[in-house]
Write a structure and sequence with these properties.
- With 243 residues, the protein is mostly helical.
- The protein has a single domain, classed as Methane Monooxygenase Hydroxylase, Chain G, domain 1 (Up-down Bundle), CATH 1.20.58.
- It contains 9 helices and no strands.
- α3 packs antiparallel against α4 and α7 packs antiparallel against α8.
- The longest helix has 36 residues.
C-alpha cells in the first residue's frame, strides 16, 4: 500500500509540473498575439482555457482522493496542501495569459505606439525567464534556483512603470484608449511573474518546512547560512517509515 501511495504522490506532483510547463507555453503564445495583433491566434488561446481549468480541477480532485483514502501525515500533508496552492497559482497564470489574448483581440487592427509594443515584448521575454526558472526549480526541487526568482522579477516591475511614462506621451483619445489596454496587458505580465514567485515560495516551504520569503532565503544562501533541509530533503519522502 505504501508503494502505491508514494507512486500516487509522484504522479500528482508530475502532473502539476506538466501543467505548469504547458501554461508557460500558453504565455509564450499570448504575448506575440498582442504584439503582432493576431486575433485568430488569440482566440485559440481563449478557447483552450477550458482544458486548463479541467486539468487543474482533476489534479485537485486527485489530491482530495489521496488525502481521503491514504491518511497522509507530516511531510506528505505539506506536499498535498502545497500542490493545491501551486495549481491555483498556475491556473491564475493561465487566466492572465487569456486576458492578454483578449486584449490582443480588442486591439487587433488598431495602430498604436510601437514603443509600447516593444516594451510588451521585452517584458514578455523577462517573464518567460521567470517562468522557465520556476518550472526548472519545481522539476529539480532546487532551492537555490527558487531563491533567484525575486532578482529576476525586478526588471519586470521596472518595465511596467515605464508604461505610465509612455501613456503620458499619448496625444489623442484613441491613442490613450489603446495605450490603456497595453498598460493592462503589462499588468497581467507583472502578475504572471508574481504568481510564479509564489510557486517558488511554496517549493521552498516544501523543501525546508519553513515559511519565508524568497528574498529572505536568498539572503541566507548568500551569507552561506545553512538552511536546514534534512527533514525536507526531497519533497516526496520515499522512505518506508512511520512518519
Amino acid at each position: 500500500m505504501r508503494e502505491v501511495f508514494r507512486q500516487d504522490l509522484h504522479d500528482v506532483y508530475d502532473q502539476t509540473v506538466t501543467l505548469f510547463e504547458d501554461v508557460t507555453k500558453i504565455v509564450r503564445r499570448a504575448v506575440p498575439t498582442l504584439v503582432q495583433g493576431d486575433a485568430a491566434a488569440a482566440q485559440e488561446i481563449i478557447d483552450g482555457d477550458a482544458e486548463i481549468n479541467e486539468r487543474t480541477i482533476a489534479i485537485e480532485e486527485r489530491i482530495l482522493q489521496i488525502t481521503a483514502t491514504q491518511s497522509p501525515v507530516a511531510r506528505d500533508v505539506r506536499l498535498l496542501q502545497s500542490l493545491v496552492a501551486i495549481t491555483m497559482h498556475i491556473e491564475r497564470i493561465a487566466d492572465m495569459a487569456v486576458s492578454i489574448a483578449k486584449t490582443a483581440k480588442r486591439t487587433a487592427g488598431k495602430t498604436g505606439n510601437q514603443s509600447m509594443l516593444d516594451l510588451i515584448q521585452a517584458q514578455g521575454n523577462l517573464v518567460y525567464r521567470v517562468l522557465d526558472t520556476t518550472v526548472e526549480a519545481l522539476k529539480t526541487e532546487d532551492l537555490e534556483l527558487a531563491a533567484k526568482l525575486p532578482e529576476l522579477d525586478e526588471p519586470i516591475d521596472e518595465l511596467y512603470q515605464q508604461f505610465f511614462r509612455e501613456v503620458a506621451r499619448s496625444k489623442d483619445k484613441s491613442e490613450v484608449k489603446w495605450a490603456s489596454k497595453m498598460v493592462l496587458a503589462s499588468r497581467y505580465l507583472e502578475r504572471i511573474a508574481d504568481h510564479s514567485i509564489d510557486v517558488g515560495e511554496r517549493l521552498a516551504f516544501l523543501i525546508t518546512g519553513e515559511r519565508a520569503s524568497l528574498e529572505e532565503l536568498a539572503e541566507e544562501l548568500l551569507a552561506d547560512t545553512r538552511v536546514d533541509r534534512s527533514e525536507g530533503h526531497g519533497v516526496i519522502n520515499d522512505e518506508d517509515d512511520d512518519e
